[in-house]
Amino acid sequence: MTKTILQKRGFPKHDGQWFGVHVLVNNDEEVNTLSKEVPKIAKIGVNVLVIEVDYNYAYVSHPELRGPKPITRNCVRTLAETCRTHGLRPIPQFQCLGHQSWSKVTHPLLVQYPEFDETPGQFPSNEGIYCRSWCPQHPEVNPIVFELFDELIDVFEADALHVGMDEVFLIGSEYCPRCRGHDPAKLFAKAVNDYHSHLCGERGVEMLMWGDRLLDSASTGYGMWEAAENQTHKAIDMIPKDIVICDWHYTVRESYPSIPLFLEKGFRVWPSGWKEVEATEALINASQKYKTERMLGHLCTTWGAVKLDQLAQWPPIQTAMQKLHVRKA
Ligand SMILES: [Zn+2]
């Protein structure tokens, strides 16, 4: 089904390696800057652009969920068209479940619908927590969020959506009347399966997500950020295998046991690095040992460490593209 959509919409057939960059965009100005940078990153070999939009789009279905400087439709259309002209596949991202606040700022969903909060009324000013989560069992949350998914898929004419889902620490909370006492792995898997059902079932697009909550910190040796200490990891066996797992690791390690684990489970794996060049090289070296079509390539995250008009010159992206393309040749 995905291939049909790819072909129908005139995307390049994507059965080779995925040479990706992930960026966050907050407003029209940033999207315009990114559009201008697309030809330059295409030139060094990038062929997928993951664009994290979250609440920063001028949603029509839910204007109450727009961020402070909503990105306009025309601006996104220009970015998406520029990507296609230069052979990049644009994949929008909407951060689901966790990361519903940052520092003292709570994002629009839980401001407008505080009843969706996994810890309603708790942690004033977000003190004492990392980020808020929405409740995966609130019956009204998915219908709203799915309308936002749909708008992003439509405006980007996308054939995939990244749903985020990293670093979810508040899940199965004692403060949630629906979730308290429930198995965090089952709750996490329910959320994944719900999003998958809408995206892959209803919309016929691919789904990507971060992999950290599917990894057991104790058995993998990863810390509490890049793996789970909160028992969500058993969800790895409760979700569809056609999800693309973005397996992020930002430091140099002797080994990256999550890569063979995700591959053995049957997932496609997209290892994801960040700003340390050495760590990017180590992750690419570790991942390229696996000769399978399900090893997709590499995703360079940026997380504000580089300006959008300097992506093509940024050492981690340049290094990753050089290594991957040498490999390909
Ligand atoms: Zn709940």
Which labels suit this protein?
329 residues; TIM Barrel; 34% helix; globular
Brief digest:
The chain is α/β, with parallel strands linked by helices and 329 residues long. The chain is 34% helix and 15% strand. It has a domain at 22-240: Glycosidases (TIM Barrel).
Give an overview of the whole structure.
This protein is α/β, with parallel strands linked by helices and 329 residues long. It has a domain at 22-240: TIM Barrel (Alpha-Beta Barrel), CATH 3.20.20.80. Helices cover 34% and strands 15% of the residues. It contains ten helices and ten strands. The strands form two sheets. Strands 1-2-3-6-7-8-9-10 form an eight-stranded parallel β-barrel, surrounded by six helices. Strands 4-5 form a two-stranded antiparallel sheet. It is globular and about 55 Å long. The protein starts with a helix and ends with a helix. Residues 1-13 have low confidence and may be disordered. Bound molecules: zinc ion (ZN). Zinc ion (ZN) is lined by residues 118, 135, 137, 176, 178-179.
Task: Write the SSE topology.
Layout: H1 2-8, E1 18-24, H2 28-43, E2 48-52, H3 73-85, E3 89-96, E4 101-102, E5 105-106, H4 108-112, H5 141-156, E6 160-164, H6 184-202, E7 206-210, H7 217-220, E8 244-248, H8 258-265, E9 268-273, H9 277-287, E10 297-301, H10 315-328
Parallel strand pairs: 1-2, 1-10, 2-3, 3-6, 6-7, 7-8, 8-9, 9-10
Antiparallel strand pairs: 4-5
Helix pairs in contact: 2-3, 9-10
Bound molecules: zinc ion (ZN).
